[in-house]
Amino acid sequence: MPLQLRRAVESDVNQLTDVFFSGFRKDGVMSRCFPEKPSVREFWINGLQRDLSDPDVHIVAIVDTDIAGSPIIAYANWVGPRAQPPKSSQNQNVPLYPDEGDDIPLAEFFFPHLKEQRAKNMEGRTCWYLAALVCHEGHQRRGAGGMLMRYGLEEAEKTKADIYLEASPPGVPVYKHFGFKEVDRVVVLDGDFTELMMLREYTG
Question: What CATH code is carried by the domain that includes residue 93?
Answer without folding.
Answer: 3.40.630.30
